[in-house]
Hints:
Blueprint: H1 8-11, E1 49-55, E2 70-73, E3 87-91, E4 94-98, H2 101-123, H3 132-139, E5 155-156, E6 165-166, E7 178-179, E8 195-196, H4 198-204, E9 209-215, E10 225-234, E11 246-255, E12 258-261, H5 267-274, H6 281-284, E13 297-300, E14 303-306
Antiparallel strand pairs: 1-2, 3-4, 5-8, 6-7, 9-10, 10-11, 11-14, 12-13
Amino acid sequence: MFNEGGQDSQYWEPPGMGFQGLATAATYIPETSWNEASVANGLRASGGGASALFAKPSWQTGPGVPADSARDVPDLAFGAATLHDPYLAVISGQLYAVGGTSISAPLFAGIVALTDQSFSALSGVSRLGNINPSLYYLANQPSLSYLPSPPPSPFHDVTTGNNNVPCLYGTPDCVNGLMGFNAGPGYDQVTGLGSLNVSWFISQFRVATTTTLQLSTNQVVQGGQLTMTATVRPANTGGPIQGLSGSVNSCWTLAPTSRPVLRWTLRERLRRRSRGTPLTGRQDRTPLRRSTGVSTRASTSPFLRPCL
């Protein structure tokens, strides 16, 4: 959440300059951890912690990442406050003040879409894949702060605040009636790697892996087999993933599916008409019968099924 420190005029345009006469941000606004939890507001704060089910992936490394062998969350932080400077969203023509993941998740989805568009234009690669390794790769790049004009970081490190919320005594990890974590330099279980400097993040983004698909043959006859090989490897030297690659083979057989198509005849009705039998009433509703000696034909539509 934003942390203007009482200096609103330093970060916001004067009222009336923004949408529908509302104020709009003039520059980057300092941030702190989102925590608006109270008895009146309920549990309004960021989540975070270590997974009890998933092990820590090899790419989740860097300053501040706990050495707990568990997948830690979150990875990133976005403004989520609903009381202090919420997002304004137009829904069905109505203006609403929105916070939490209801707005931050689609906001990040839009940023990823812009990243994909930019990366595709530069490299021809139109799929980013799992971007988590790329996030930590960018966060672990050496600092260039010693330069006279260092480039900005893709992240705004949020180092203040916490996500402590009330808890019942006796609940695991409940200490003095509170449970949660404190934000700090680098990664933390409150704001992750921090919020994004979007323009710089997009310009510096690197794809972690590339995936290729190879076929054992270009043509398959009925009953023949086709092997598909999917290979995942690091996208480039010095990129987010190093030394890890693998392939998966999948075998398929081209098999037909037969659907009998019956040839029906009007012989029975024509025979009745020749005898003067009326074709109305019950007799007209007599089901048609298949002619003697008329064979069925098969309609084939090949499909792939796993090799036996």
